[in-house]
Amino acid sequence: MRIDTLTDTIGEWLRGTGPESDIVMSSRVRLARNLAQFPFVSRATDQDRAEIERVLRERISGVPVGRGLDYIDVGRLEEVDRRFLVERQLISREHADAQGARGVAIDGAEQVSLMINEEDHLRIQCLHSGLDLRGAWEQIKIVDDQVERVVPYAFHPRWGYLTACPTNVGTGIRVSVMLHLPALVITRQIDKVFRSLHKISLAVRGLYGEGSQAMGDFYQISNQTTLGRTEEELVQQVADVVPVLIDYERRAREFLVRETQQNVHDQVSRAYGILRTAQTITNEETMQLLSRVRMGVLLGLIGDVKIADINSLLMRTQPAHLRKLCGSDGAGADDIERARYLRQHFEGGDASTRAAAN
Amino acid sequence: MKCQQCDNPAVFHITELEAGSVREVHLCEEHARTYLNQAEDEAGESAKAAGKGGALSTPLGVGEIADDLAALDKRCCDMCGITFFEFRNQGRLGCPHDYVQFERELEPLIANIHGATEHTGRRPTRPGVGGEAPGGTDALSAVIGMRRDMREAISREDYEAAKEARDAIRGLEEAWMPGGRGGASSPSTEGQP
Ligand SMILES: [Zn+2]
Ligand SMILES: [Zn+2]
Question: What's the whole-model pTM score?
């Protein structure tokens, strides 16, 4: 498969539809699995890694997923193509930066990806648009069963599915939702919300930023424990908390419109203005401004922009996407290319913002 | 100069001092890594032996507890050879068998992380595999140790032992993963001089 064929499309999960997609960007389930007959990746020799990659690649190729799986040999990719796959959330940053034989199988809709030789031999992921944890779980369960029929997963009756790190042992499942919470950030309630999530052992981290520093008000909520509860219970644990967070964010948005109408309209309009006129702009600033515009669109303060377009720009203005779209290569020129790309994108639409109150 | 174990060029030239005599080893990168890993394991074994002697010669007390911990840290997996110390340093286990080998040591750690010590989720459904067997897939993980034995046999040019190990690996893999091309690394492609 050629990476370049992906630049023309965006992943199914970014299309901006699905339940509660004004706040829930995507729903993700991933499973960590290992072959019983090999050392874990960090202790595998180069030869072991090559064997693991070969066995999994061959056996997975016969697994029926959607319209079929395409295989990408990540070990042979250029750095920019590896970053590109990370930005699309098809592989992890760790997988991109790792050494040795490794690859990823992706279905045409970019909903299912199977990473070979990440921290574990196999990491299966299902990514759905909007709030659809149940759908992602039902889909990954089928893929997992099909792979299990052709390879012996390392399994222990007491410990469950065996993983390289004990933090994943048991179900090997990580259930997460990516949320857009700009109003909770603006009204300074976000820390309070996160403290209460930690108390019920859910993890929170920023989407594109390092550690917990979120960029563009996007946050990922996920389960922290994987042992002692069933997969359904762990899916439900995350699913239960999402409506509460959605409700908080909606109320914060209503508060902003009601109490600070002028202020929030000004912020949103300025953000939109900068995106349409800037001559040079960093990735961080772009994310932050797109986040504000996204909220503005949802609040009816900006009329001529589609949510799907904003979602697409959030991905396409990141460094590797930009380089592949514009053919640029220098770090300094990136910010200029990004500004040009944004200006071009917004040029077509009517530049006026609609004042909700006027 | 060619690698002593394959046809690749030798890039590592190791001088071994053994009982007064000097021996030179010429290896490609891959075989040098295997060779040096073995040497490291042997060093671990002798350090372990030294630690035991030390414990006997010191009076009971704090020193003994430290030595117990040191002995625990040096215990290694029969299959992949990782020590508990290495695991604690890296935070990553070496192979699936570690969950059996270090079960007692891992239990408090896992209880601390998950608040539980029993898997209650899905189980493998393949007939005759995993699920009901008391050791799960641990019998298959023996292949990891056999593969190490095979590589060691190759490096000391004991091709008879290497062939036996290879056949045992193939037998186990075929039993657990029918359909051939299982994943046994064949000594014939790896190490004939
Ligand atoms: Zn060699
Ligand atoms: Zn081991």
Answer: 0.81
